Structures are given as structure tokens and as C-alpha cells.
């Protein structure tokens, strides 16, 4: 809870100038007034006095409620910082064309699902399970694409992840994707665990000049780096040394792995050759990233008009009940009208004659 | 002017023997021509040969001549003193001021019919000169003055002007009807009644069954004092109604006690004016 009053406001403040009208029930009352020759004829009665006070308060409540409701009260939105278990996770997802193939390297048919679909399913579950994580999603192929910036809006992240099995694009340009994924973390916050999850099914050569930049970035952000390598059956593993020359061009996966190892940040690579392996890797990542994280909860601006109307309705209800309980003081009893009529008719005559 | 449908007359019987030489309807102090036998006096005292009482003269051992005397019938003056404080505006089962006007009309008719004078004084905080009628036997004037009461404006919050009315009534005893709802402080009642003590005073208490017996058993009523004592919300229920009626009864009993030294017991005029009931009250008290 924030400050008790600081966070409240109204949409149309000038209407509040009408609030003094709410004091009108102190001067007038809703009940029908019965003129009587002497009020002192009625004996003192505490219950009546209490009912009178309740009716006055109800009148004030009804008027004040209506005026406040017309003014449109709300509680301003606010950011509440809490501490939960989780991490800032920046996901970097490969959108190259090969992601649309199955783990067997074919176009998916029938029951088979593509690498993209499998990672979408498993990452979606990953996002759903973690209550206080913040996620950013970046896709990359030839160029990186900012999908969702670092946020704790679960729905946005899930929507971003469910979009990653759209048909992929061209090639795999890891370096620029990494740069953008790192930039997602924003300024450093103390005690926040950060994780960069790279999901790809291949690797590319990283230009040595960009390598230096990336190193500097990694040194600054210091995320835990996880590489979920969706390995197509038959393609080289990240640990396989090529038969020929051991250059980045010949075995980009192996050299990317080596590059990551040389960064000096906590790093793990998961090589998954099927949907189950991917799920297992994600479970491991999930188990690793369990640190306290301060997270911000946004309490949205909340409309309080309903409460004001409810208060007014309550006051009006009390007044209506009082109105229904009103007794006809002078004109009750079956003979009242005839008794009234008779003497008037009789004694009106001399007066009208005289006039 | 006084049509038969105007209703019964108010019959009254003054407590004192009115003096004066005018001929009226009530047993007077003076002896005079026709009427009820009063006594016999010597012929020299009343040399009226037409009324020589032969039997009494023969019975007299001193052989004096006795003459019969008869009571003279004398008129009285009746006055209606109307309280015009704001509480007289009350309308319950009946219009309170209308009741007062009906009473005045009946009294004006009854008094002028038998040759008595009818006068009218009204007062709120001050004496109301516009409604003042000195006692007159003029039937139309009396009726007009009585009719004016029904349309009178009453806005004052006290009846102090009645003290001035009491001063104007000084002189011979008169038959005075003090018409009010007597929602006055007890001291005021005593003061006004003691100022009128020389006269034959009948307090006419204007009441309304809506104010006591006719109270509803249940319900909310917001009472608004006609004399400006403020508003009050009252939740009527049988227990409160019982207390209310007890209070009203106690008030009338107190008024009766206050009237005893100075006046006849109050006559309660509620809802409709009944001349016969007033006659019964006047002849039995």
C-alpha cells in the first residue's frame, strides 16, 4: 500500500466544489414535514433522535457519494517493488530457416514438430512456471529483431514466444543477436540474477572485431550464459573437432562454444537432439536460476466510482426506507375525511354570507 | 343573517347577576316590570297600583299594602378572546383557526339573538387592533367580526397581547371565552387568567384528535413546530404513542388545575364545534 491519500485523485476536480451541497441534509430533510402546534408535545425519545441522526448522515452520504462519483474518483497507478525468486532472462532465439525443420532435418509432416515449434512449446511452459522472472525476447537471423523488451508481463512474453514458429528467415547472424540480447538487460541492478538464453540450431562465425565488443559487453553485464543448441541429427556437435582444418569457418559451433567459454562468465551449453532433451535442458536452466530478485508490480489506476455510487446508493436506500416508513400523521383513519368535511361545511356558511 | 341551518345556539347562564337598566335575557340585579317574582315591598316603597299583592296585603297584621316586585332581565356582554399565536395555524382533523371562527360565529349569533352584546379581541404577541370588536348587539357586525377570525394571519410566537385584552375588559363583569390551544408557559396562563379573574371566564381549549388519540401507531414523522421551536424526527410506535397521550392528558390536567382558582374548567373543543356540548358544559359548571 502506498500513501493513504497521495495516490487518490479525481477525474473532474471542479465537481468537488459541489461537495458543500452534501451538508444540505443538516438544513433540510427528506421526510415530509408535519406542522404541529408544539414540538414539545412529543416526548423525548432517544431512538427517534438516533434515527434522525442516521437519516441525516444517510442524506450526507448520498449527496457526497453522488458528487464524488460524478467527479470520477480513482486510485492512481503505482509501482510496488517486491522480492521474489527468479531472474532476468533475455532469450535470444534463432529464427533462421533451419529452425522450421525437425530435429531430423526434414520439413515437418504429420505428427512431427519443427525445432521452432518444440522450443516454442517448451519455452512457453518455462515462462508460465516462473512467477517473478522478467523476460526479454530477441529473435535473430540475418539481423536481430527486438520482439519484447525486458518485462514482467507474462502475456506479452508468451505471445512473443508463440510467434517464434512462424516461418524462419535467412541465415544465422549470432553476433548482432547477442549484442541486442545483452542490451536488453538495461542498467545493472544489485542482486539481480541475469541469464542469457541462446536458442539456436547452428552457429556462425563471429567477426573478431565484433568479438572484442561482445567481450566488453559480457564483462559489463555479466549474465549467466546458456546455449541451448538444437542439434539436427547428423550435424556436427559443438564438441566435435572437424576432420580437416580447425577454423571457425569449418566448425562454427565448436568455435562459438570456445568463444563463450573464453568470456569469463558462467556458461553452460546444452545440446539437445529432440524435444525431450530440450525440455530437460530448460528444466536444468530453471533449477539454476533461482536467486532472489526484486521485481516491480504495477498496480494499475483503479476506478473508485463504483464505491462512491455504492455509498450513495446505500444512503439513498436508507432514505427510501425511511420514506416508506413515513406515517401519515394527520389524514389517517377511515372517518377522518368525513369528520373534516362536516364542520367546515357547516361553519363556512356564515362566513361566506358575511363576506 | 342567522339561518336555521346555522346550528344550535350556545346557551349560557352567567354566574353573576348583571346590573344595568337595559332589558336583556338574564336574571339581573334590578327589580323591574315583568319576570320572575322576586319579593314584596311596601306600597310606599314602590307605588305601583297595578302590582298590589292583595293576598300579602290582607295577611299583613299592620294593614300595610304590599306590592309585588319582579326580577328585571338584564343583558350581559360576551367576549371571545382569541389567541392568534402561530400554533393556531395547525390543521389536523380540523382547521384550528376554522374551529375558532366557527365558535365565534356561533357565539355571536347566540348572543345577539337574545340581546346580549358580542365582542371580539384577538392577540398574538401584541393586541390585534384590526380584529377588535367592542361588544355590540349589532348582529351583522358581530357576524362579520367573527368571520374575520377565520382568515386572520397568525404569526406571533406568544399570546402576551391578551394582557392588553384583559385591561380593555375592565369594568362590569363579562362573560369571557378564552379561546386558545393553551400551548403557553404555565406562568403565562396563570397571569392571563388572574388578569381576567373578575369576569366569568370559560377557557376553550382547542384540541385535535390527530395530536393525541389519532396518532398513528407506527411510522416516522417529522414534526415542525409552528412557533419556530425547530424540527424533530419522531419514530412513532405504540410505547411512544402511549407516552405521548399520557403527556397530553397530564397537560390538560395541569391546565384544569391552573384554571380552578380563576375560571370555569376548560372546555375541550376538538375536531368539530358542537354548540350543544358547549351549552352542557356552561350549564353544568
From TrEMBL, chain A:
Chain residue ranges for the region called Disordered:
335-355
> Any idea where the VWFA domain is?
88-202
The lineage's top-level taxon is Bacteria
Membrane-spanning parts: 51-72
Give residue spans, biased composition: Basic and acidic residues: 345-355
Q: Does the UniProt entry include the keyword Kinase?
A: no
Query: Mind telling me which Pfam families this protein's record contains?
Result: VWA_2
**Transmembrane is among the record's keywords:** yes
State the UniProt keywords alphabetically.
Membrane, Transmembrane, Transmembrane helix
InterPro entries given for it? Answer: VWF_A, vWFA_dom_sf
UniProt protein name: MxaC protein
Species of the source: Methylorubrum salsuginis
Q: What is the lineage of its organism?
A: Bacteria, Pseudomonadati, Pseudomonadota, Alphaproteobacteria, Hyphomicrobiales
TrEMBL record, chain B:
Gene3D superfamilies, sorted:
von Willebrand factor, type A domain
Give residue ranges for domain DUF58. 48-250
From which residue to which does the signal peptide run?
none
SUPFAM superfamilies linked to this entry: vWA-like
Q: Which named protein is this?
A: DUF58 domain-containing protein
Q: Organism, per UniProt?
A: Methylorubrum salsuginis
**Lineage of the source organism?**
Bacteria, Pseudomonadati, Pseudomonadota, Alphaproteobacteria, Hyphomicrobiales
